[in-house]
Structure formats: structure tokens, C-alpha cells
Amino acid sequence: MSSVIKSMEKNNRTKPRPPPIGSTGAIGWLRQNLFSNIYNSLLTVICICGLILIIPAGIDWVFLSSQVAGDNRFACQNTGACWAWIDQRMGQFLFGFYPEQERWRPMVAFFLLLPALAPWLFERVPAQRYLRIFSIAYPFIATILLVGGFGLPSVASDKFGGFMLNLIVGLSGIVLSLPVGILLALGRRSKLPLIKWVCISFIEIVRGVPLITLLFVSNILLPIFLPPDATLDSVIRVIIMVTAFASAYMAEVIRGGLQAIPSGQYEAAKAMGLNYFQSMRLIILPQALRISIPGIVNTFIGLFKDTTLVIVIGLFDILGIANAMVANPDWLGLSTETYVFVALFFFIICFSMSRYSMWLERRLGTKGSNGWSS
Amino acid sequence: MNNGNAAEFRHKSLIEICGLNKWFGSFHVLRDISLSVASGERIVICGPSGSGKSTLIRCINYLEEHQEGQIFVDGIELKGDLKNIEAVRKEVGMVFQSFNLFPHLTVLENCTLAPVWVRNTPKAEAERIAMELLEKVKIPEQANKYPGQLSGGQQQRVAIARSLCMQPKIMLFDEPTSALDPEMIKEVLDVMVDLADSGMTMLVVTHEMGFAAQVADKVVFMDEGQVVESNTPKEFFENPQSERTKLFLSQILSH
Q1: Given CB 3.0 to 4.6 Å as the disulfide criterion, which of A161, A361, B121, B157 pairs with B126?
Q2: For chains A and B, what is the number of CB pairs under 8 angstroms?
Q3: ipTM of the complex
Q4: pTM for the whole thing?
């Protein structure tokens, strides 16, 4: 009986057919994305015309008609960009006024950074445990390399500069602002009034003031309050202020993530007997941070670009060096080239962060996100 | 009931509730509730929505704080003391209407988390127990999937297994089948019947009167925050005492 029903079903069912030609593949993609209706087609044509105008001219300016050799701007008689300054000034752009014979030290610190970051950024890395131990030691190793000690001649931090300074301040800020931001976000939701109000005041005051003001305060006001013989290194001051500023934003981003977690998750964790710290660490934060990834990375990118503000307290980051070079009589008038060059550095770092976060979201997304019921 | 009586009772019963009162703001949600549950007893709590039945069982593991009266669970009084509360929660498993599985953990990880972190069970041992219980709720093959990949009925069975992994003395069920498709209600009820047969002490808030008739030792009917009637299922269904119960039964059994 049942076999009869089965064969009847088989005969009546429509067999799967391939989709109509032109709805999949390259043509399908073009149709769907570029020429789906008359307005879209018009926009596509306008955009293509715009690209035809811009791209060849850009390539011409950057590569074809540009000049690379020469000692000053008078060597550049061509119509395109003048890159002649790069080989002279690259060292300064990267290291600021760091003594030339010691520049191998920041280079080593930079290359050691990669194995220190890898075990935290990726899930499966060879020798993960040892690399994690190494990355905990890394801040101390890097500090000794950069500042000196243990036989290395010491370099004053006001010699730090160029892109190295952006990386030092940016990375320290990123690494520190995430945990501080998490603590502030949890503190703001605390039931204990003292903790709650301390966190709220910190977040609202720091977030309500421009970063540039905080940097001025750290430079001018802090020494007044500190005892006269106590000095706080200016790079460390900047790191503290940038971290404070970013963690106030971070706290709000993470608070948003925490609020998105349904109360059932808190209740289930409680009902199983987990205490506050366990339920935060094991249940709530892993989910809240995952939701907050776009906002967290947004804050990181903002923080990294804000490192250029160190110029207001007399430190020369890559943008400061660029400004100084543009004002130099030898290279006067090359501001376009210089700023394009500087922008490229920031773009590479920020774009990588953005791509990494998208990759991370995709990877975590496969682990059953949106799994909350009702 | 005074303190002395409560102290006497708590040796005999697993759960002892006396003179429980609770307010949400100015709304008096639980009014003078007294209830005792002996070890191995199965109690079904029913009543119209808003009658406070969920609130009552949420008070038993202190997900809700009561303002007056006393609750003893396994001899421990539930008060503001966090240590007592956590001790009670170890012994009381809870199954929610909306499952509340942890979506970022696999089924197996959901089951082993509390034993490992709260009971300090070694991981291998916790996994062995978890697999045994997943077997019991008939989904061992889903152990390495994430909750989002399971159907509602499967999720609820995982939630039951997860609670059982803590080897609780008492299981609370807060409308465990209300969020499920009709086809899936049966598979969850079957698991609950098995559990009842194994001698677990259970408090179940549900509208499944068939389940109540089959397994309950006592049916408690609540309305407007009070216990209106409390009787054996046979008496409750065949010979309800109060008008309110009769009305409720006529409405719930009419279709």
C-alpha cells in the first residue's frame, strides 16, 4: 500500500529543472546588480563614465608621468607626481627622530608583533600556547627594545615619531581600551550605586570632551597636580588619554551588545548556579562582544586615526613629519604627494582591520548566531 | 504558620513555602501562598495567565525575590544571602518556556558548562554524564550541533538534559511546551513522563491537562495570586470544589 502511494507521489512530483538562462552566472549577476531597472542602468553608465575619467588620470599621475629620482623639488619637471623625496625622507616618516643607528630596534619590535598578535586573531595557529605566553611578554620586550635598557642605549621618548609613534599609541590604545571598556560597560549596569555612578561619570565626562582637550589637559594641567619631581613620560600620557577616550566609547558600544542579550540568557545562567563573573565570562560577554564586533572595530579605527592628534602636544607622528616636510623649502608645494602617501599608511591599517572584522563575523556567524528563541 | 512550624517541616519536605507574598511594584502578584512538596512528589500548577503560577516557581530558585514569607529548599532558607541562593540553585534545575539554550555553545557544551564550572566535575566525566542524558532525551546524535540548528522540540529536550546534568534534586518546568508546535509537544512531554517515572521531584507549570492527569500527584490551581484549589488529579478533574476551578476546566477542556 505505502509503496503504491510512494510511486504515485513520484509520478506526480515535478522534477527539479535548471534555472532560466540569464538568471544565474555572470549575466545574471550583471542583470541583478547593475541593470535591474532603468534607473539602475542609468546610474551604472554614469559611474562607468566617472571611473573612465578618474582611473587613467590617476594612474598617469601616480605612475606614468611621475618622477622618482632627484634631490629636491626642482628635479621634478614632469607633469605627474614627484616622489623624489621618498628615499630621503622614508626613515623620518617611519621612525621620526629615532637615532638612525638604532632604527633596527623598532623594526625588530614590529616584526615580533606579528607572532604576538597571531594567536589572538586566529583560532588555529601553530604553537598557540607558547605564542600566547610570548604575547603576554611582548609589551615588556617591545618597551625595552624601543626605550633601551639591558645593554641597549636608551632613547628618549620625545625622539619617537613617524608612523612608529602612530602604531605604538594606536596599538596600546586598542589593546587597553577593550578590557577597560568592558569593565566600564559592566560597571554602568551594576546594581551597586557607587560603581555605577563612577562608571557613568567617567564615560559621560570623557565622551563629552574632544580628545584634543584631553591631550592638552594631560600636557598642561596634569604636571600642575603632580608633585614637581614626578614626571610622566609624554608618550605614556598620550597612551593613557587615548585609551581613556576610546574606552568611554567602547563601553557604550559594548553596553549596546549587552542590552541585546535576552534576559532568558541571564536567567538560564543564574538558574544553573553560575555566579556573576562566570555567567558574564562564559555566557553573556561572548555573545555581547560578538554582536558588538562592528562597533568595536569602528572604535578601533577611529582611535587609530586619532593618534595623529599627538601633534598638539609637540610629538611628531607621520602626519606631523609630513607637515614639516611640506613646509621645507626643498620640497615646498608637494603637499598632494605627501598627504596621499600618509593617507595610504592609514588606509592600509584601517582597511585591514575592517576586513579582519568582517572575516571574524563570518566565521563566528557559522556558529549558530541568532540562536535565541522567541 | 510561624517559624517553629517551618523549621519542623523542612526536614520532611524538599520544598516548604509558607505565607509567601510578593508584589510587582504595587501589584500583589502572590498572596499568602503555602505549599509543601515532598521528595519524589510531582506537582502540576495550572491557572489562567497572570495568576502568578510562573512567578511562584521562579521564586523557588530566587529568579524572583519575595517580600514576605519563607521558602525552604532542601532545608536551606532562601533569603538575600547569595551563598544560600547559589547553593539552592545547584540543587534545582529549571526548564523555561523559551528554552534559553546558549546559542554560542554546542549542545554538549551547553550540558557540561554548569557541572564543570559550578560542581567542578572533571570535563571527561561531565561529558560522559551529558551524553548519557542526551541519550535519555533521545538526541545523542545532535551533541555537536549548535542550538540554532535544532527544532524547538529538540531544543527543549536539550534544555531538560542540560538541567539534569547538574543532577538536581528538584526540577522546575515553566510552561515547557507553550512555545512549541503541536507536533513537538508530544516528544517533550514523553521525556517529562519518563523523568517523572524515574522518581524526580517535579513542579510543572503547564496547560497540558493530559500530562497532569497522567503523572501528577497533586494539581494546584491558582487564580489572582492565590491557591484556589489543590487536590489529586482524579478529584481535581472529576470533582472540582470551587466555581472558579469549574469555569477554568470547562474552558480549557471544551475544545
Answers
A1: B121
A2: 87
A3: 0.89
A4: 0.84
